[in-house]
Design brief:
About 30% of the residues lie in helices and about 15% in strands. The longest helix has 18 residues, at about 40-60. The radius of gyration is 22 Å and the shape is globular. It has helices spanning about 1-20, 40-60, 100-105, 160-170, 175-190, 220-235, 245-255, 275-290, 300-305; strands spanning about 30-35, 60-65, 90, 115-120, 145-150, 195-200, 240-245, 260, 295, 315, 330, 335-340. It has nine helices and twelve strands. The strands form three sheets. It has a five-stranded parallel beta sheet with strand order 3-2-1-5-4, covered by helices on one side. The protein has a five-stranded parallel beta sheet with strand order 8-7-6-9-10, sandwiched between helices. It folds into two domains: about 1-170, Rossmann fold (3-Layer(aba) Sandwich); about 175-355, Rossmann fold (3-Layer(aba) Sandwich). The termini are far apart. By secondary structure, it is of the alpha/beta class.
């Protein structure tokens, strides 16, 4: 009975998409790439950045299906909680689908060949980031629906062509006025006419992802050593320090000297809180206003922020926590490169660029 219901529903959806009747339907308004970015803030940003590049390359309109995911991830329930939607098409703006409502579109079992194609969590298998996802541009369906936590490169582009388009996304998407005002005011008071290096510490212990693995957190002493090297180059250097634990900010400040540290007055680090998510967005953009970033290896927060920095660089510190999390990494000079495909292997090929 369940199988029959799915087949019947799919047939009705296809009919509603191919026959006009209740206002404009998708078949009359071009093609769409709908991305449902998942996990934390920076993972969602990299998913949307890749989807935007793919949409442009394949001639589709990008639609963002931003959903609240409680658990231990950021709690913004709507993309408009963080970003202006002037030039963004949120899921609510997708033309009527007739019999197929939003829940139906999000249902992985409702796939209509040639009309709606769905790619659910395909990036959980890292090989798909190098094989399946780059070929989405060749999908002929009216709507391509994609759930994603990482990034990918359209096969039509070389890495040198892809990277500037990927970075351009961060200029294209605009935060809401409240966030913009907080960033502008803070930068004016603390960064103006100064050489400011970003420092981000990710301990991997705040979300319950890696219980009992505190010993694998990056060493504070390594951060201090690299910061001292920057002071040796220019004694006027200041450091904007951000971390997932307040005590780590204090440890870094004590190690390098509080007079050399700039911090944002964070009120909450509870990732289930919308206010904390807004503050995280502010801190993320502030990292992007620095010269470059010294940050935890494989942290998407500092990696994506690094693309916005003046030098576009990130120096990695610490061990590996994931077998795969991005098609890009930063080499020993801090420059972004295409991460080699290490399908079937646990060791991240970019670990050799991280300072232990």
């Amino acid at each position: 009975m369940l199988l029959f219901s799915r087949i019947f529903c799919s047939a009705l959806i296809a009919l509603s998409l191919l026959v006009s009747g209740c206002g404009k339907n998708v078949s009359e308004t071009g093609k769409y790439l709908v991305v449902n970015p998942r996990a934390g803030l920076a993972n969602r940003m990299r998913a949307m950045a890749s989807a935007k590049v793919m949409a442009d390359v394949s001639g589709r309109k990008l639609v963002i299906d931003w959903q609240e995911q409680p658990m231990h991830f950021e709690a913004a329930g709507h993309i408009g909680d963080l970003f202006k939607t002037d030039n963004i098409l949120p899921i609510e703006s997708l033309p009527p689908l007739g019999i197929c409502d939003l829940n139906c579109l999000r249902n992985p079992d409702m796939t209509i060949p040639g009309v709606v194609s769905k790619y659910y969590n395909v990036d959980l298998d890292q090989s798909n980031a190098y094989t399946v996802l780059p070929k989405i541009g060749k999908d002929t369906a009216k709507i391509v629906y994609l759930t994603l936590t990482t990034n990918f490169k359209p096969e039509e582009l070389s890495f040198d062509e892809f990277l500037p388009r990927y970075k351009e996304f961060y200029k294209w998407i605009k935060p809401i006025p409240r966030i913009t005002k907080a960033i502008d005011n803070f930068v004016r008071r603390n960064f103006q006419n100064r050489r400011v290096v970003g420092v981000h510490y990710r301990s991997w212990t705040t979300t319950g992802e890696f219980p009992g693995q505190e010993s694998l957190a990056p060493k504070i002493s390594t951060y201090i050593k690299l910061m001292q090297q920057e002071l040796a180059k220019d004694s006027s250097t200041m450091f904007y320090v951000s971390a997932d634990h307040e005590e780590k900010v204090k440890e870094i400040s004590a190690g390098i000297g509080e007079d050399k540290v700039i911090t944002y007055p964070v009120k909450s680090r509870d990732r289930k809180s919308l206010e904390a998510t807004i503050e995280a967005a502010i801190e993320w953009y502030l990292l992007g206003h620095t010269e470059f970033i010294i940050g935890t290896f494989q942290s998407s927060f500092s990696e994506e922020a690094a693309f916005m920095t003046k030098e576009g660089r990130k120096i990695n510190i610490g061990p590996q926590m994931y077998p795969f999390h991005s098609i890009m990494c930063f080499d020993d000079a801090g420059n972004p490169i295409l991460r080699p495909n290490a399908t079937g292997k646990y060791t991240d090929p970019c670990l050799k660029y991280s300072i232990q």
